[in-house]
Amino acid sequence: PAFRVADGDVAVDIAAQDISTAELIPVAAPPGGPRDADSVLGRVGPQEPEPPPTKPEALAAAAQEPELKEARPAAFSITVPLVQGKCAGIAVDLSEGSYLRVCKVDAKGPVPEYNAKVSVEERVCVGDFICGVNNVAGSARRMTAALQATGDVTLAFRRPYNFKIENLDRGLKAVGLDLSYHPRSASLVVKEVLSEGAIPEWNTKASAATKVKEDDHIVAVNGHSGSPQELHKLIKDSTVLTLEISRPRSD
Description:
The protein is 19% helix and 29% strand. By secondary structure, it is of the alpha+beta class. A six-stranded antiparallel sheet has the order 1-9-10-11-12-8. Strands 2, 3, 4, 5, 6 and 7 form a six-stranded antiparallel sheet that branches. A hairpin with a 2-residue loop joins strand 5 (129-133) and strand 6 (136-137). The longest helix is centred in the last third of the chain and has 10 residues, at 228-237.
């Protein structure tokens, strides 16, 4: 009943591949077809037009990250009421990883309504990571399934830690990453850092805070954000890379 992928009704299968060698692979629907996907993503039947929000200034602000990031706690939880067939008011990046990344905050729904009632520092923002749904944690797939619950649901969030790898000259070397993504998400997720390639070489010289690791999200490539297919193509076609990477903040 709760969450959707950014652009609508899609299957919940993941395309995973080594970006250094593989071409894009079409993603098939899971067993049971679109009905099963709809039940996970909360997209049941035609979607009614969205009315204007009752508090436009507060709800619009909820979709943006606060400027004073240092004022926000690294971890926080909210409890929101979820209703069968209704979206919670945020879109998330699905992956084979451990987290769900918020890629959009809508104008209506339980989460935007929560945002309108709390201070800027307490709001759910684009880029935040869902790390737990009730008692489920550690698996984006299991958390997505847990979001089918109705009634009051507790969501555990972590703010993002963002860093950038600039002007990485990989030449003819492989990138050295195994990635997973959902075709309607807005990031590529690091499934594994391989033993050879430009990123493994970067990791030997990088600080602990900027080493690329499993479950990191690549959110932009060479200054461009977009679909995971677009990000994949940019990485594959570029010999010099600037990668913007996000992961949940530690305490």
